[in-house]
Amino acid sequence: MKEYDEVHAKSGLRVRLPAIETFPNQFPGYVIRIEIPEYTAVCPKTGLPDFGTIVLEYIPVKHVLELKSLKDYILAYRNIGIFYENSVNRMLRDFVSSAKPKWCRVTGQFNTRGGMHSTITAEFGRKPR
Q: Which of these is catalytic: 5, 50, 94, 104?
């Protein structure tokens, strides 16, 4: 099997995914936490499936993520070759771009593979105390 290369490293970052819709927020100063236990994608090198739970937390300002479109967005990962780190950071980028929150954190808790369990966290902004 060939070594990991730049193609592997960038895999999945530019794949077109379904749009994440929003609706107008009606209340200030609260945290939304969404747990998505059915995340799946494939390793860009081996093609083996990856499974995990994505936890999205954010403080909305003007927009709230619409859950049906969020579900469609997450389900689209199942056929993409993408590393854990890239998927979590891409999700953060896409969520922030859609909802423009005050603060956002995406955590990927990936199932054990090869005797190792990985947790990846990416964050935008500073969470108020």
A: 50
DSSP string, the chain: -PPP-HHHHHTTSS-------EEE---SS--EEEEEEEEEEE-TTT--EEEEEEEEEEE-SSEEE-HHHHHHHHHGGGG-B--HHHHHHHHHHHHHHHH--SEEEEEEEEEEETTEEEEEEEEES----
Counting residues of the chain whose pLDDT is more than 70, the rounded percentage is 98
Determine which one of 5, 43, 72, 94 is catalytic: 43
pTM, full prediction: 0.93
CATH architecture of the region 34-124: 2-Layer Sandwich (3.30)
> What ranges do the domains of the chain cover?
34-124
CA distance 29 to 99: 15
User: Is 72 one of the catalytic residues?
Assistant: no
How much is the pLDDT for 1? 54
